[in-house]
Amino acid sequence: MSLSELYTKDARVWVADPEAVWLGAKLLQDYKGEKQLRIEYEDGKEGVLQVKTSDALPPLRNPDILVGENDLTSLSYLHEPAVLYNLQVRFCDRNNIYTYCGIVLVAINPYQQLPIYDNDTISAYSKTVSAKYAMRYFATVCGAEAETQIEKKVLASNPIMEAIGNAKTTRNDNSSRFGKYIEIDFSKADTIVGANMRTVVFQAPDERNYHIFYQLCASADLPQFEFLKLNHPDIFYYTNQGEAVVIDGVDDAAEMLNTREAFSLLV
């Protein structure tokens, strides 16, 4: 179709905006090569677009029926505003953090723990992105319920690495504070035989230090930790600088039990 057939009155477009990045609008006139186009934004306000050349025409919007598709290649128009809006709808309106783009999987960090990886889900999908869930997937498909001891150890490394390497930040309650590359080794029979991890390594207001410190403080009443002279994290300099020693919805004492159990599996 020609541009004059696409850019007609009431055609929906995306308009670049310095604050919102992209705003939805519609044309109030047919495009016939003019240098200016009258538009109406979604809030009812009108404006004028400068169109120096046909290449400067605003991107067209996708039909509503396609918005929220789980594969970006299904969209009629695949450009920056279309991709961003589709991801926004899936993430903000539908709580979907994953979207396909052909064979590529786009993942949006939800900045919180999501209960989306049970055994049924793992069995249904052949892709995951985070190293933690990838390891759980491999262990499940290789050993089902009867995991080998090596597989259990590989999975057990995660709560340990989170405890000593993750912390609360202003944007993420469980942010990795170091870079990590995990290499998983498989046998010819497709079972996990080992794994290697390479690490690549201040508390601002509303942030915490590493989780392990708060897990220890929350377990101060345990007899085996008595010699450490533990107390509430508000007391210690290394744990109180961010003035945010508690994470909503997180039980540090329970997390300490998970960490200790993980260590016991790695003995």
Automatic annotation (TrEMBL):
Domain Myosin motor: 67-267
UniProt xrefs under PROSITE patterns: MYOSIN_MOTOR
Pfam family, one: Myosin_head
Superkingdom, natural source: Eukaryota
Stored SUPFAM superfamilies: P-loop containing nucleoside triphosphate hydrolases
InterPro entries: Kinesin_motor_dom_sf (IPR036961), Myosin_head_motor_dom-like (IPR001609), P-loop_NTPase (IPR027417)
GO cellular component: cytoplasm; membrane; myosin complex
Keywords: Actin-binding, ATP-binding, Motor protein, Myosin, Nucleotide-binding
GO BP annotations, alphabetical order: actin filament organization
GO MF annotations in UniProt: actin filament binding; ATP binding; microfilament motor activity
Family recorded in the similarity comment: Belongs to the TRAFAC class myosin-kinesin ATPase superfamily. Myosin family.
Protein name from the UniProt record: Myosin motor domain-containing protein
Species name: Ridgeia piscesae (Tubeworm)
